[in-house]
UniProtKB/TrEMBL annotation:
Protein name in the entry: EcsC family protein
Source organism per UniProt: Paenibacillus contaminans
Pfam family for this entry, one: EcsC
InterPro entries linked: EcsC
């Protein structure tokens, strides 16, 4: 049965997601911290301002609401197939964006940050509709921000965020987290830490285009996996 197969996949994903950081992860975090110190302050300011703007737009605007209608009476297998198509499309879009800005050096690489976050949010909103969750509802838009946070949090922060995502379906709607309950400063720092190494390399002359495409493709792949599995969890909860 397809649903049983997916439950096993989700269990494996959960174990991988929540495993304690190993030596490689710790070394990468240390390196990221050093790189973080070398990134120009204005780049940090752009990231911070962009994240804040995206958060506000996601919660209170309609900019990212997709034209694709919410899919209701669709099997999980068909939802997964459609989700793979959406993720593949946005990975290609992000890679093209990264290659173009990476080839232009540091100035265009800085410009890539807002565009990349917008691409990510558009993908999340479309995936929500694929899995039958209406982003016109505020709680669904807030859920997407937790999915975003889950994808780009450090290993020490993932368990808490995953707990919120995992138990979303079983909560009383009135007990769901509100926008003002999210630590957005922490949210921004986690995101910056997650992308610093890859995006810093994008600014290196001569390899920027290649690294930009690789970085953006990988970041969309990570977010797509987190989103797809988070929505699968909620869909399976409705079948329980």
């Amino acid at each position: 049965m397809y649903e049983q197969k997916i439950r096993k996949e989700l269990l494996q994903w959960e174990q991988s997601l929540l495993k304690p950081p190993g030596m490689v992860e710790k070394a990468a975090k240390k390196l990221s911290g050093k790189i973080n110190e070398k990134i120009p302050e204005r780049v940090h300011n752009i990231i911070t301002g962009t994240v804040k703007g995206i958060v506000k737009t996601s919660l209170f605007g309609a900019e990212f609401t997709p034209n694709e209608k919410v899919s209701y009476k669709v099997s999980l297998a068909d939802r997964d197939k459609r989700a793979d198509e959406v993720i593949s499309l946005y990975k290609k879009i992000a890679a093209a964006e990264g290659a173009g800005t990476g080839a232009g050096g540091i100035l265009l690489s800085v410009a890539d940050f807002p565009a990349l976050i917008a691409i990510k949010m558009k993908m999340l909103f479309q995936l929500a509709h694929v899995y039958g969750f209406d982003t016109h509802v505020e709680s669904e838009r807030l859920f997407l921000l937790y999915v975003f946070q889950l994808a780009f949090s450090g290993q020490d922060a993932k368990p808490a965020v995953y707990g919120i995502v995992r138990n979303w379906a079983g909560r009383d709607p009135l007990a769901l987290p509100k926008a003002d309950s999210v630590d957005w400063e922490h949210f921004q720092q986690q995101y910056r830490d997650a992308i610093d190494l890859r995006k810093m390399l994008q600014m290196v002359p001569g390899i920027g285009a290649i690294v930009g495409a690789w970085a953006n493709y990988g970041l969309l792949d990570e977010l797509g996996t987190a989103a797809k599995n988070s929505f699968r969890l909620r869909r399976l909860d409705t079948l329980s």
